[in-house]
Structure formats: C-alpha cells, structure tokens
Amino acid sequence: MKTIVITNYAPDNIRDIITIDDNDLVIAVDGALSQVLKQKIKVDLVIGDFDSLTTKSLLKGLNRIQLNKEKDETDTFVAVKKAYEMTRNEVFLIGGIKGDRIEHFIANILMLNEFPKLTIMDENSMIYLLETGKHLISKASYISFFGFSEAKITLERFKYNLKDYHLKQYDPLCISNETIKSYGEITIKEGRVLVVKTTKK
Q: Does the model's pTM come out above 0.70?
C-alpha cells in the first residue's frame, strides 16, 4: 500500500507513471481532480481552495478538505502533509513539475526538506532525496545529483565517476550523468543529495 498525491499539472497518463492498486490511498489536489477522474482513478480525498477547479460539481460525493484562498502554505504542501498524517506508507507526488507556475515547482522541490522520503514524479522525471550510505541508482537517460544543501559523495559505475567529492549546493558538476550498465552506485559520506532522473523522449 502506498499514498499517491496528484497535483497540477497532472500527467495525461498517470498509470503509465505509477501503478495504482485498489488499496492505495489517492489524494487529488484542487484542479488536478478533473484529470484524475477523467482517467477513472478513484479518489479518497480531495484538498484545495478549488480556485483552479473549473467544474465544482466534480466535488459532489467526495471526501474533501476546503482550504482558504489566503493561506501560508500551498495546496500541494497541505496535501502532502495530510498524506503523512494519514499513513506511514510511501508517499508519491505525481505532477507539480510542469506548467506556467514555476514558483510552485520550486516550492515542491523545497518540500523535500520537510518530507525527505517524498518522491516526485511526472512523465519524464523522478526526483527524490538520498541520505548518507551507499545507494544503487537504476538506469535512466540522464541522472543528476545536487547537494541538498551539500554532501561528500563517491560515484561508481557512471560515465563520469567521482571520489570523495564535496558537492556544494549550487555546484552544477553532477548534471546529466549516465550509468554505464543497468545501475550506478552513489556513496554519500556526509550530507544529503537531491537526485533527478530524466527520461529522454
């Protein structure tokens, strides 16, 4: 069982990104509700101020939490926080990467500081945080690493390897790496690393 939070801009084919089982908990955020229902995905809870939901009748019969339009947190942040309050399972945020509100995408990335186990996904990208230790990274078109806020890392089985490198917060050195086989290895000796896996279309 897992918890899936779906936000704008919701992908056109959500099930191509993540498997949704009958016992999974699905939370739709505001205007993403229409796309979720269109894809015949069951919704356990909808959260938002519903300013971006054009058809309010879609809310009929659904469990919902109505937020004030003026608030200190984004609808997506509230939904993710609620997800972690409701379950101890893995939480996935689907969407929230594309769109004309880039500030919301930045806010979603920064949520990883509050929710370090969260995984953010859309059709082309997977974004997550890694703590200290050795981790296997499965193959993708491009794999990028960023200090969050900084880390000491070793990369092995990548096209570009590193040994005990101090990866600072704004260092672009580890953008667009590739594994040389089915997976690569990253060892984080200190700090945390933001991982961005991108599928080339």
A: yes
